[in-house]
Design a protein that fits this description.
8 strands; 38% strand; 5-stranded antiparallel beta sheet; single chain; mainly beta; binds zinc ion; 3-stranded antiparallel beta sheet
Length: 138
Amino acid sequence: MSQPATKPVPVPDEISAPFFAGTREGKLMLQHCTACGTWSFPVRERCPHCFAAKLEWRQSSGRGTLYTFTIMHQVMNPGFASSVPYNVAQVDLEEGVRMVSNVVGIDNKALRVGMKLEAVFEVAGEDVRIPKFRPVAG
Ligand SMILES: [Zn+2]
């Protein structure tokens, strides 16, 4: 007997642990550089703008807009077989960073570039939550 394939689950490491600790509490945490004042994502050790190792964790508003998206029809990983077609979206957060995620709670045909979104947190493993985005009015 074989188990149905499951989606891969992120494994937090030393650097990304605060990000995933935040998602478990329903908070979207981002790194903010205390040297130059910019936000960054993905998670990293140094600021991509000024290279200072002065990144601190701050809570994002979780709000953003849909920058672009595509619809996946191919099954590139067996864990996603029951999810196709699904969207892969780039979301511009209010803090000025772009995050790759999925928009949930809406039919793929209703997705529109520029629509307003807010973060929600999907259970992805025993102790892991992944940020997804859902439409908000306005
Ligand atoms: Zn910086």
